[in-house]
Design goal:
- The protein has eleven helices and 14 strands.
- With 339 residues, it is of the alpha/beta class.
- The protein has a seven-stranded parallel sheet with strand order 8-9-7-6-12-13-14, with helices on both faces. Strands 2-1-3-4-5 form a five-stranded parallel sheet, with helices on both faces.
- The protein folds into two domains: 124 residues, Response regulator (Rossmann fold, 3-Layer(aba) Sandwich); 192 residues, Rossmann fold.
- Helix 3 packs parallel to helix 4, helix 4 crosses helix 7 and helix 9 runs parallel beside helix 10.
- Helix 11 links the parallel strand 13 and strand 14.
- The protein is elongated.
- The termini are far apart.
Length: 339
């Protein structure tokens, strides 16, 4: 059965390009193409597509407002189609925080009919996402977390992928401002990573920034992998710093959660906490197991609150997670093994 797609894009040229790219895929069918949010809403209601591609910068109701309506009224996997502008990057990051599955960057100003199958692959992955009734997130636990720092970890490491930006906003929103140094690999296009960091920084108590080579890790700071062709890992002994090194994909990814977690297991050991959030595939499962074997406290997000349960499930199946918790409760388990 074909994956049924609705395209929402205000540019006739870009609509034609997207349709051309997808028309060559035997397992994907574009069932409709809308020029604005109003048309898109009608088509989604009538056709019930498997995936929606959504231009983020449109006249009338913009893509963010439309996305919020989709996620509220008819949760559907949405891929944001973003231009090359700074405003487009910022809006795309906010869209990921609202629940968009992925962001597709227009190339060459939207010119050209080939993209090496990138959009088609994103659509195939998005079609596997099943939205469930999410348990309400508990965001107001920063004060409780501050009060439970008797067993303050030396470092917190987090891995996430599909649906991860939305999940990170919930988890980091529950962190105290003076949280332990925290490092994150979120699978994301490098172009969007700085905007994601800024979006999270605006809504979460700690300072959130992009990791840089040899940058010292400080209390109250969260470091996000830049998402380019370098692995993110941790170096140091009594104090820690960021390491960014080129390499081959590990567990299918560059940067890889497994690489980050393995370095934390080696450098920080039992003084660390590892958290594996929503995501497709198995990246992070072996790394979380390495952390658990070193005595670190390890947490996996539960199935009910995941956008995609792949990565946490793989870790749970390995016996790598000390705790399996709903997204809104993860902060309660961070700072005390007795939580």
């Amino acid at each position: 059965m074909s994956i049924r797609v609705v395209i929402v894009e205000d540019s006739p040229t870009m609509r034609a390009i997207l349709m051309n790219r997808l028309s060559k895929e035997p397992d994907i069918e574009v069932v409709a193409a809308a020029a604005n949010a109003a048309e898109g809403r009608q088509m989604i209601r009538e056709l019930d597509p498997d995936v929606v591609t959504l231009d983020i910068e449109m006249p009338g109701m913009n893509g963010l407002d439309f996305l919020a309506k989709i996620m509220e009224l008819r949760p559907t996997p949405v891929i944001i189609v973003s231009g090359s502008t700074q405003a487009g990057n910022e809006m795309s990051a906010r869209a990921l925080a609202l629940g968009a599955v992925d962001c597709y960057a227009k190339t060459g100003g939207g010119v050209g009919l080939e993209d090496a199958g990138r959009l088609a692959q994103m659509i195939r992955q998005a079609s596997k996402v099943e939205f469930t009734t999410r348990a309400p997130a508990v965001r107001k636990v920063a004060q409780e977390a501050r009060g439970s720092l008797l067993e303050r970890p030396a470092l917190i490491a987090i891995g996430s992928s599909t649906g991860g930006v939305e999940a990170l906003q919930t988890v980091l929103g529950s962190f105290p401002a003076d949280c332990p140094p925290t490092v994150i690999v979120q699978h994301i296009n490098a172009r969007f990573a700085p905007a994601v960091a800024r979006t999270l920084d605006q809504s979460c108590p700690p300072k959130i920034l992009i990791a840089e080579p040899d940058l010292p890790l400080k209390q109250g700071h969260v470091y996000l992998a830049p998402g380019d062709d370098r692995h993110f890992s941790i170096g140091g002994s009594s104090t820690f710093h960021c390491k960014l090194r080129p390499g081959d994909p590990v567990s299918g990814h560059l940067p890889s959660v497994d690489v980050l977690f393995a370095s934390v297991a080696e450098v920080v050991g039992a003084r660390a906490v590892g958290i594996l959030l929503t995501g497709m595939g198995a990246d992070g499962a072996q790394g979380l197991l390495a952390m658990a074997r070193k005595g670190a406290h390890t947490i996996a997000q539960d199935e009910a609150t995941c956008t995609v349960f792949g990565m946490p499930r793989a870790a749970i199946n390995l016996g790598a997670a000390n705790v399996v918790a709903p997204l809104g409760s993860i902060a309660r388990h961070l700072f005390s093994k007795a939580a």
